[in-house]
């Protein structure tokens, strides 16, 4: 564990807390993509299968459980809560997630560190996380205006991965034999996906105005 990974984990956790607070406080999930939230749930389920057979540390275990529980809590709110679910914009959130899931799974079968069920699923989760935010970004482009809490959520989610990039660089120079090129490439792609959003987020912050994304 180093300061960059810890900062990344805390930023990731804070992004989820911000989203949950938005939903709980406003009783609304307007501007939030259910498809992206379900993709993240798939990411966490396929990545954290080692909870059943491996123990790394208490911190590691607790964080994995938190990410799993919060992912399904958000989905429950958006699907089942009698007030929140009515604010979900299903007609705008139409990204076809199979266009992400199928290529990521095929790529995981072809490019992985080891041909085993758990390793392929772990690799699949890495590839899928890199593009899971796309339905959310498309939804925001369609609705144009982005409320502050949703904008902060996405900004922190992107920042978490950027901090992990720094973490990987740090580990490359400080840990002998540390090589995780699948993670490195996927993380770089994921960070690049956020760049356009980062630009408009910073512009809105500098101008002290509500964030807007071009169509």
UniProtKB/TrEMBL annotation:
Record key words, sorted: Endoplasmic reticulum, ER-Golgi transport, Membrane, Protein transport, Receptor, Signal, Transmembrane, Transmembrane helix, Transport
Principal location listed in the UniProt entry: endoplasmic reticulum
Membrane association type: Multi-pass membrane protein
Name the UniProt record assigns to this protein: ER lumen protein-retaining receptor
Membrane-spanning parts: 51-77, 97-115, 121-140, 152-170, 182-202
One GO BP: protein transport
Family: Belongs to the ERD2 family.
Keyword Protein transport: yes
Domain of life: Eukaryota
Cell location: Endoplasmic reticulum membrane
Lineage, broadest ranks: Eukaryota, Viridiplantae, Chlorophyta, Pseudoscourfieldiophyceae, Pseudoscourfieldiales
InterPro entries named in the record: ER_ret_rcpt
